[in-house]
Amino acid sequence: MGFYYFDYTYFVFILPALIVSIWAQARVKSTFSKYSQIRTGCGLTGQQAAQRVLDWGGAYNVGFQRIGGSLTDNYNPSTNIISLSEPVWGSTSIASIGVAAHEAGHAVQYATGYGPIKLRSAIVPVVRIGSGLSMPLIIIGLILPVQYDFVVNLGILLFSLSVVFSLVTLPVEFNASNRAIRALAETGILTNEELAGAKKVLGAAAMTYVASTFTAIMSLLRLLTIVNNRRGRN
Fold it and tell me: Which residue has the higher pLDDT, 129 or 231?
């Protein structure tokens, strides 16, 4: 049952992923903090800039709402609402406009029928079910005799769906950022110098998704290693 204690697989697979995740979170927070102190020349708030990006991309009838927290901004395709955190909604900083434009970029993806985001939305229900069942099946499979390996194999297969979801998410997030930067440039919302700062903010944010994908892959590799080691002892 090496999944629960610090065996060698923890240090080989999980610890590196944990370090990368901590680094990515620290980087996005420090980058956002830095550029949230720099005001833009256009004077638009994050919400106003997001609306400009929506107009630019042909995404209409998209709603907005304020939410609490920091870096909790998101777009919900089921309600067609962009949720912006308080630090982003009314701020005129480079960081706020960059983050708000990124979320608007997701709305534009749906409006233009961007393939990867449609795929991601389609597999969400399956991934949720798989994530809920995977660990119980893996735990039960590791407890049962080795001849019941099909149980743990099914658990690992379901767990691998989260890896697929993470991999599909990467191009979606990078594309949303690229759309945001392009919109901010073509609409003249940000100057070239300000765009450089927005790129750094969105680049740092993208690294959190890379870290999440890396963690998912390493977790899957650890599970496979634990199961293979178990088979080798039987």
Answer: 129
pLDDT single digits (tens) 132-188: 999 999 999 988 887 888 999 999 999 999 999 999 999 999 999 999 999 999 999
Q: Are 63 and 94 in contact (CB under 8 A)?
A: no
The full set of domain ranges for the chain reads 8-232
The phi and psi torsions of 67 (rounded to 5 degrees) equal -135, 165
Alpha-carbon gap, residue 47 to 124, rounded angstroms: 28
Cβ neighbour number for residue 26 with a 10 Å cutoff = 11
Residue 63 CB neighbour total at 10 angstroms? 11
User: Is the whole-model pTM more than 0.85?
Assistant: yes
Backbone φ and ψ of 64, nearest 5°: -130, 150
Query: Residue 233 — very low, low, confident or very high, per pLDDT cuts 50/70/90?
Result: low
What span, in angstroms and rounded, lies between the C-alpha atoms of 224 and 47?
Answer: 45
pLDDT at 6 (0 to 100): 61
Catalytic residues: 103
Contact 108, 57 (CB under 8 A): yes
